[in-house]
């Protein structure tokens, strides 16, 4: 768990407390920022800090096979990344610079906050896109710092919509990825669906679960490969169709190698499979997320990560 210390200062005041200070004086015009607390600006904007991390890339929450991301200048640098869930409550369209501005101070050096916004399906990143009326998106507030300078306390001074000033202080030593761990049989309740984790196994090909005398299957590209397959049951609880390629994604990492998932959807009667079908509103379908590895890697332990609706889950695989 992340331990977060919250301090509050006026926007134009810097260095109000030394690193050894344990108290902060707060004026009536100042507001403390707290992680996962929801804030509203004049019924125009609702925002919530949901995650702080040190990362080698600024990437969308739902990665897919073609996701875009930002990289630091070199291997000696890393990003401080603060993700803010941002909901436009108005009928106005806002550029990112209309919403947030600020600085991150680290070791007496101030870094301008850079901004990037995720797509509506959390699958792509942009530094130029806008927040449309009534949209809710993830916006990344980030800066690039030297890797040898991350065992410090960092401080964000943030201004929202050029109106209100906030400050958020956190320890970089205690910042970490906070993925939720899920196992076979667990149910994930999302905004638009309910997902049940059915199975995780290795297979040379993907077949429908109720195959008849004639059926189609999905093989690996090469004879020396085998699939690591995560099987899911997805119940579409929304009024819109779900395109699995835009909605869900999985990665399998072994050492420094990341294998991207192929998406195979089983028909509603479980007798055929497809790589391009959708889950209609109200339907329940079986989905296979297949990651090809070499057969010689079959006994190598890996980490499986599932991305859906802006959430990240680590899938626990029991060792047989």
Q: Could you outline the blueprint of secondary structure elements for this entry?
A:
Layout: E1 4-5, E2 31-32, E3 38-41, E4 45-55, E5 77-88, H1 96-99, E6 100-106, E7 109-112, E8 114-118, E9 125-126, E10 136-146, E11 153-160, E12 164-171, E13 180-182, E14 187-189, E15 193-203, E16 205-206, E17 218-219, E18 225-236, H2 244-247, E19 248-254, E20 257-260, E21 262-266, E22 273-274, E23 284-294, E24 303-308, E25 311-315
Parallel strand pairs: 2-12, 13-25
Antiparallel strand pairs: 1-12, 3-4, 4-5, 5-10, 6-7, 6-11, 8-9, 8-10, 11-12, 14-15, 15-18, 16-17, 18-23, 19-20, 19-24, 21-22, 21-23, 24-25
Radius of gyration: 22 Å
- Name the structural class: mainly beta
Overall geometric form: globular
Strand content: over 45%
Q: Might you state the CATH topology name of the largest domain?
A: Immunoglobulin-like
Oligomer: single chain
Total domain modules: 2
> Low-confidence spans: pLDDT under 50, at least 5 residues?
1-28
The profile of the biggest β sheet is: 6 strands, mixed
Question: SSE order, as H and E?
Answer: EEEEEHEEEEEEEEEEEEEHEEEEEEE
Number of helices: 2
Name the helicity range: under 10%
Rounded average pLDDT:
85
Distance between the termini: 30 Å
CATH A-level architecture of the largest domain? Sandwich
According to DSSP, the number of beta strands is: 25
CATH class of the largest domain: Mainly Beta
Structural commentary:
This protein is mostly beta strands. It folds into two domains: 171 residues, Immunoglobulin-like (Sandwich); 136 residues, Immunoglobulin-like (Sandwich), CATH 2.60.40. Helices cover 2% and strands 47% of the residues. The protein has two helices and 25 strands. Strands 1, 2, 6, 7, 11 and 12 form a six-stranded mixed beta sheet that branches. A six-stranded antiparallel beta sheet has the order 3-4-5-10-8-9, with no helix packed on it. The longest helix has 4 residues. The two termini are 30 Å apart. The N terminus is likely disordered. Keywords: Signal. This is DUF4352 domain-containing protein. It comes from Massilimicrobiota timonensis.
């Amino acid at each position: 768990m992340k331990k977060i210390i919250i301090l509050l200062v006026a926007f134009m005041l810097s260095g109000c407390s030394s690193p050894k200070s344990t108290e902060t004086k707060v004026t009536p015009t100042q507001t403390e920022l707290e992680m996962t607390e929801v804030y509203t600006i004049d019924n125009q904007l609702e925002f919530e800090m949901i995650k702080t991390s040190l990362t080698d890339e600024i990437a969308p929450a739902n990665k897919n096979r073609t996701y875009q991301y930002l990289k630091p200048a070199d291997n000696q640098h890393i990003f401080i990344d603060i993700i803010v869930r941002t909901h436009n409550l108005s009928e106005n369209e806002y550029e990112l610079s209309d919403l947030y501005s600020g600085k991150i101070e680290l070791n007496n050096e101030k870094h301008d906050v850079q901004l990037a916004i995720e797509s509506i399906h959390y699958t792509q990143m942009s530094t130029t896109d806008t927040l449309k009326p009534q949209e809710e998106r993830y916006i990344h507030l980030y800066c690039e710092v030297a890797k040898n300078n991350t065992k410090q306390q960092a401080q964000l001074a943030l201004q929202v919509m050029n109106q209100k000033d906030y400050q958020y202080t956190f320890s970089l030593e205690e910042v970490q990825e906070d993925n939720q761990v899920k196992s076979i049989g667990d149910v994930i309740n999302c905004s638009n669906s309910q997902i049940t984790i059915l199975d995780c196994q290795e297979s040379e090909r993907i077949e429908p679960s109720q195959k008849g005398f004639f059926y189609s299957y999905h093989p690996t590209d090469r004879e020396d490969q085998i699939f690591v397959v995560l099987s899911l049951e997805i119940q579409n609880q929304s009024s819109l169709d779900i395109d699995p390629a835009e909605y869900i994604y999985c990665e399998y990492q072994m050492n420094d190698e990341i294998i991207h998932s192929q998406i195979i959807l089983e028909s509603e009667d479980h007798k055929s499979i497809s790589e391009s079908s959708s889950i209609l509103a109200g339907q329940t379908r079986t989905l296979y997320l297949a990651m090809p590895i070499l057969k010689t890697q079959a006994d190598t332990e890996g980490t499986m990560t599932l991305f859906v609706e802006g959430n990240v889950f680590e899938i626990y695989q029991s060792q047989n």
